Amino acid sequence: MANRSTSNPIIGVIGLVLFLIVAYFLIKSIAWILGLIAPALLLITLFMDKSVIINYGKWIMNLFKTKWYYGLGAAAMTFFGFPFVSAFLFGKAMFKKKVAGMGMGGDDMRTSGDTFTEYEEIETEISYEEVDLPVQDLDLPEIEENLNTLDEDNAYDNLFGNDK
Predict the structure, then answer these.
(1) Distance (Å, rounded) from C-alpha 162 to C-alpha 164?
(2) Which of 5, 22, 33, 127 has its CA 20 to 30 A from that of 139?
(3) How confident is the model over 57-99, as pLDDT tens digits?
(4) For residue 92, what are the contacts with CB-CB under 8 A and spacing of at least 6?
(5) pLDDT tens figures, 24-43
(6) Residues 6+ apart with CB under 8 A from 93
(7) Residue 41 domain-assigned?
(8) Is residue 76 included in any domain, yes or no?
(9) The pTM is what?
(10) Which domain holds residue 81?
(11) In total, how many domains does the chain have?
(12) Greatest CA span in the chain, whole angstroms?
């Protein structure tokens, strides 16, 4: 008897096509919604942290100076992908605000002003006399060959069995 597969490749192709159609319409709807709110996101970003937008512009100008074709590509992508760029810049400004907010306050154990945090110094060096572990003298064989030679018959290669 022939070994027959129980799966039908046509069903797999139909599933892939359906997945791609759903993904296309999902991305298209997200782009449409972002296209509507992109100017508002850019204005909110400008009021939250204008340095995000300024640094993005400086980055594109630096690309023009170093590799003009990368700068041209980045400027074109910024123009055609404006909704996505404005959402990215808004997310970056929100992230910077969140990180800055975490550093200024919260329920952590930091002190402020002229007060100092109490601490105790702990000695970190441990000697064998303090630990009471038996220290054994190891009898290692002496290496008679010089491993720093650059001859064709290198002892280093001999260690890994790469004899020629």
Answers:
(1) 6
(2) 127
(3) 999 999 999 998 999 999 999 999 999 999 999 999 999 988 8
(4) 52
(5) 999 999 999 999 999 999 99
(6) 44, 45, 48, 49, 52
(7) yes
(8) yes
(9) 0.53
(10) 37-102
(11) 1
(12) 87
